[in-house]
Amino acid sequence: MHPALKPIDDMLRRRDIAGAAAGLEAFMARSPDVAEAHLMAGRLAQMQADFTRMRDAAGQAERLAPGHPVASLMGIEARIHLGEIAEAAERLAQMEVAAATNPVMLQHIAEFYTQAGRHADADRVYKAALAITPDDPRLLFNAATAALSLGQIDAAEALLDRAIAINPADGDAWYNRATLRTWTHENNHIAALEGWLKTGPVKSLRAVPIHYALAKQYEDTGDHAAAFRHLQAGGDLRAAHMRYSVQADTDAMALIAGTFDADFAAGVPAMSDEPGPVFVLGLPRTGTTLVERMLAAHDEVESLGEINDFAYALMAEAGPAKGKADLIARTRDMDHASLGARYLRTSAGRGAGKAYRIDKTPSNFLYLGLIAKALPTARIIHLRRHPMDSCFAIYKTLFRMGYPWSYRLADIAEYYVAYSRLMDHWRAVLPGRFLDVDYEALVADPEGESRRLSAHLGLDWSPAVLDFHRSDAPSTTASAVQVRRPVYKSSVGKWQHYARELAPLAERLQAAGIDIGVGAVA
């Protein structure tokens, strides 16, 4: 690295955007032809969700250093965020040819195929890398993840078995394997997992997925006390390694409600009858994937998955913000038509051109008012579930990259209360603009609820939506295994097995006025 770029690199690592921008401007005025500087400019642009500038910076770096893999991958990533999927895939294919004997680069290429939604290509490239290095545990894990996204559960399990055999300390592989099936007293890995905790680094993050794997297998075998003990141990350990305060998120939700008030809502246009994007949103583990898969089985609907395009469009249109409060304030009076156009432009490149495209990003509930204002053609579907089932389902899922509030019950309770109040606010100021769907009603009467969903989109009902589990479409969510099964009701009321342990959660929800009685919803 050029010595003068080291302080700028440090600023980028600290997310000192203003300092890094000033430093880069001064450096590039003196030395405009240093590829590393353009790569840093690309990183800076990425932090600001300015993916056009990120793409251009990567292009400059490639011109100065032809074949530079970091520059090539940066340009590809920018194109994925811009919805330029076809061009990104073409560039990945070119890199694939050049990296045919390089398993490390093939892994990177496969990861970007996954980002681009090209899961079959990712699976193929992982297999090519495995042909070169068949005993790389991390490669085996990633290949298993790709196989699972395609519904190849047996293949995923075999790959994870190999990864664990080579590296028994791989907690991520143990956890992913635990999620693949329902375990029995005769067939489980409890003894091996408990053995791991006796000899492994129990206070390190490596122990977290082991606890979650044990919780899954103990629950499957009916030992709910042991399951909860490991959930709590794993969650507390994960939370102890994070710098997170739920207050920042709950304050942001309160600020959103105060900013996008009745006066703002008065300017929201009525929902158009024209086809458009379909937002399936709510908390995770509430049935969003089930609704996504059902609707995507209709021949006029396709799913883009969890894409974050609306949040990125919002950040790009708002410009550099000093924090959440500043970003929220900027978005109230921004050019909402431009926001909607940017979202449609980027998301359109991800699909096959069907009239209705599902964006199943749960956290879009935060932007519901902006979605309604920016996208009159949008259909918005909110999934809700019994509060205790909802909170417990979140608590027992190891999300890894997202939802930092999901590891402690106290944080989940505060987040749920804030979410519930925000949804009440959206109902009050935007009556009839979105459809509430109850998970319990959906699994009890899938045909009736799917007819209601189809009507909300303006579509004729199709019996194909009930056969969603036969679809070979990829799924990368925590429900990737469940979506290969027909609708089932066994998750309803599951929290009651843990009523004693969840009593503090129940008390906090009730104190906030949330009904946790039978059939209650958010």
Automatic annotation (TrEMBL):
Transferase listed as a keyword: yes
> What is the scientific name of the source organism?
Gimibacter soli
Annotated keywords: TPR repeat, Transferase
* Superkingdom of the organism of origin: Bacteria
What Gene3D superfamilies has UniProt attached to this entry? P-loop containing nucleotide triphosphate hydrolases, Tetratricopeptide repeat domain
UniProt xrefs under InterPro entries: P-loop_NTPase (IPR027417), TPR-like_helical_dom_sf (IPR011990), TPR_rpt (IPR019734), TPST-like (IPR026634)
The Gene Ontology terms for molecular function here are: protein-tyrosine sulfotransferase activity
| PROSITE patterns, A to Z | TPR
UniProt-recorded name of the protein: Sulfotransferase
Q: Where are the TPR repeats?
A: 103-136, 137-170
